[in-house]
Write a structure and sequence with these properties.
The protein is α+β, with helices and mostly antiparallel strands. It is about 30% helix and about 15% strand. The structure holds thymidine-5'-triphosphate (TTP) and calcium ion (2 copies).
């Protein structure tokens, strides 16, 4: 399908000698300078690192890149370098199978955090797998390389015209239009104009008919109606210049960091992305405008951006085909009828290679998440807090890289998602403005969120915990006092809460939430609209919940969450089950079957050998609820401790309305709330306090 033959123009023929006019106008040329998405001369590149994690390990360990290497996560392989692929290895083989097929394979396990650690480390794969329950994968080393690569690319491209979008950990889109425009004017001064009759709709002169040197690029063959005998027009020239730039970028990345990558160059993002995967490794593929139909017609449309998931499946079902070629004869009206007007026209255009989506240079992170699924589930606050420590260390190190120490950017909120069975509960809290974000401070906030879950009851067993920070904002740099900039809305509230009481202005009355259980008042910084839901954090998209995200969330391909996989070890985003989210059917309102069904009441707990009486509050509870009940006291002790701290609002005088829901020996399981709770707050021996030392 592609030819590596240099594209040579034909000698000037009698027909081309006549009016040598381009198909493109001066107007088109000026829209190229602006990088307009509708410009027919537009040039976009997509760069994707070859076997990325594997290359990271090869580079980190200083290994010979021709040696087969795979990156292992528990017992699965998540990245396989090209020398290893030559042995037929792919992501679907196990470590044992891989070693059988390729005995000299180097298997490097990803870095992990170990429960209780404050730093991730590299270690032996077998050991990591044995300790899967107490370890969590860290992608920090790959993020670091990713950032370095992005920095090299940005440094290499001219600052004033660059448009770079980080699309995933190992991919970028470049809109090269403006840069290419500049080079075209330098190389072909006849383009500088002005246009004849000062009319921008006048066609440009034809480019000179010298051969275009495509160097070692993979050139996709032209559509049927075109031939290499046709002289090139400016779109060919533009794409050739882009291809030169991309070759230089790739060379720079290799020379500076020793990474190879592949690239696609075409008129839009969708084609460029298909192009980068077309010939790997270490190659670039050029899809000229005249080659688009030919290139696309062989494709399954499910390979196209945004058609890989559910929408693609629906289209396959509706039209009984998965190929672009078979969709092409279908009229737009039929697409619209079947799929809605917007999706129908989008599909009609996309299979014709039309995609006006812009390269979005905002590569700022929108949220950061650190999570762990527990198998088996965890059952105590001590263990949960150890994980919170790791999540905080993980997120904090990323925050530092984001410039949080210099107060360049800082997150506004912290969220904790807690999953038990099919139910996920989310708690969120504003991160107080006006003081530095520290690891310790974050840990305290995280614990306060967890304590809220515990106090609500039904915290254990816990199948998944995830901590995220979000709502990133530009911070204030330099030594500006807190009063020297304007603080609004939630920030103002957070700030008020963060100030020592004497300095704080009380929030407006309507904002002051009367929280019956008093916990909101105790956690002075708790968001007043603190949410609880079964569907994750409604403030974050599914995509954001999964990972550290660039600003734009539309691009869903090839994004990996850095938590343990469902199934056999891969975090493929297209896998059916999202470990962080409940299945759609699991709505909080409807409750789990256990919640919906009336629970048996302990008729005479005193006689039951499986019950115990809490020495602190004299509540009698089933023995299985003992740990949770003790955690409840712990959380309440923490509450009391914090209530008396100078920064927190005054202690609540409102008694928790839910404390009354559990009477000694009565049902401890009312609708998912109150399980394991005492019948009244009491100040018995401070047994739970010792658990403060994590
Ligand atoms: P990809 O770019 O899809 O793959 P790759 O870079 O390993 O190989 P290629 O040369 O074909 O581009 O993914 C980038 C990294 O993301 C990959 O190195 C490891 C990680 N990843 C997973 O963790 N799980 C997965 O299922 C996939 C596909 C990738
Ligand atoms: Ca890649
Ligand atoms: Ca990729």
């Amino acid at each position: 399908m592609d030819s590596s033959q240099p594209f040579a123009s034909s000698p000037v023929s009698p027909t081309t000698r006549l009016p040598r006019r381009s198909k493109y106008t001066y107007k088109h040329l000026s829209t190229l300078a602006q990088g307009a998405p509708t410009c027919p001369l537009r040039v976009i590149a997509h760069i994707d690192l070859d076997a990325f994690y594997a290359q990271c390990e090869t580079v980190r360990l200083g290994l010979d890149p021709t040696k087969p290497l795979a990156v292992q996560q528990w017992q699965g392989l998540i990245a396989i370098n090209y020398p290893a692929r030559a042995f037929g290895l792919n992501r679907h083989v196990t470590v044992a199978e891989a070693k059988e097929k390729c005995p000299e394979l180097i298997c490097q396990h990803v870095a992990t955090w170990k429960e209780g650690d404050v730093k991730w480390s590299y270690g032996d794969g077998d050991e990591a797998f044995r300790e899967i329950a107490s370890r969590k994968v860290s992608l920090d080393p790959y993020r670091l390389q990713s950032r370095k690569i992005l920095a090299v690319i940005k440094e290499f491209l001219p600052v004033d015209v660059q448009k770079v979008e980080k699309a995933s950990i190992d991919e970028v889109f470049l809109d090269l239009s403006a840069q290419v425009h500049g080079i075209m004017l330098e190389r072909y001064p006849e383009l500088k104009g002005p246009p004849p009759y000062d009319d921008p709709s006048e066609p440009l002169p034809r480019p000179p008919t010298t051969a275009l040197d495509w160097a070692a690029d993979a050139l996709v063959d032209l559509d049927k109606e075109h031939s290499e005998e046709n002289d090139p027009d400016w779109d060919d020239v533009a794409i050739l210049i882009a291809s030169e730039i991309v070759r230089d970028v790739r060379r720079e990345v290799f020379e500076k960091l020793h990474f190879t990558c592949s690239a696609g160059i075409s008129k839009n993002k969708m084609l460029a992305k298909l192009g980068s995967a077309h010939k790997k490794p270490n190659s670039q593929t050029v899809i000229r405008n005249r080659a688009v139909q030919h290139f696309l017609s062989d494709f399954k449309f499910t390979k196209i951006r945004n058609l890989g998931g559910k929408l693609g499946d629906e289209i396959v079902a509706a039209f009984n085909t998965d190929t672009v070629a078979e969709l092409l004869p279908i009229p737009i009206e039929q697409f619209k009828r079947t799929l809605s007007d917007d999706t129908g026209s989008w599909l009609y255009n996309i299979i014709r290679g039309e995609d006006n989506s812009e390269v979005n240079p905002r590569t700022q992170i929108k949220s950061m998440l650190s999570a762990k699924s527990f198998r088996p589930s965890i059952n105590t606050l001590d263990v949960a807090c150890k994980w919170l420590r790791i999540f905080v260390a993980d997120i904090y190190s990323r925050l530092v890289e984001e410039g949080v120490l210099e107060n360049k950017r800082r997150p506004k909120t912290m969220n904790l998602h807690h999953r038990q069975g099919a139910q996920t509960r989310s708690k969120s809290v504003p991160i107080p403005l006006g003081r530095a974000i520290t690891e310790e401070g974050m840990f305290e906030l995280a614990k306060s969120l967890l304590a809220q879950v515990v106090v609500d009851g039904r915290a254990w067993p816990c199948a998944n915990l995830s901590l995220s920070v979000g709502g990133f904002e530009e911070g204030v740099q330099g030594n500006k006092g807190i009063g020297s900039f304007l603080v609004r809305g939630d920030d103002a509230k957070a700030l008020q809460n963060a100030q020592p009481k004497a300095e704080a202005t009380p929030p407006p009355a309507k904002r002051r939430r009367v929280d019956d259980n008093g916990i909101a008042k105790f956690f002075g910084t708790m968001r007043e609209d603190s949410r609880e839901s079964s569907g994750g954090d409604p403030g974050l998209s599914d995509y954001e919940q999964r990972q550290e995200t660039p600003q734009q969330v539309g691009h869903q391909d090839e994004q990996w969450i850095e938590e343990e996989p469902e199934g056999r070890g891969l975090n493929h985003p297209s896998s059916d089950a999202d470990p962080l989210l409940p299945p759609p059917s699991a709505q909080f309102a409807s409750g789990t079957p256990e919640e919906a069904a009336p629970q048996p009441v302990l008729q005479d707990a005193q006689e039951s050998p499986d019950s115990y009486t809490c020495p602190r509050c004299s509540t009698r509870l089933p023995i299985i609820d003992q740990a949770e009940h003790e955690d409840f006291h712990f959380a309440q002790d923490l509450q009391n401790k914090q209530t008396t701290s100078p920064r927190a609002p005054p202690p609540s005088t409102t008694k928790s309305s839910t404390t009354g829901s559990v009477r000694g020996g009565g049902s401890a399981r009312g609708r998912g709330r109150g399980r394991g709770r005492p019948s009244a707050m009491s100040s018995g021996p401070e047994r739970g306090q010792k658990r403060l030392h994590f």
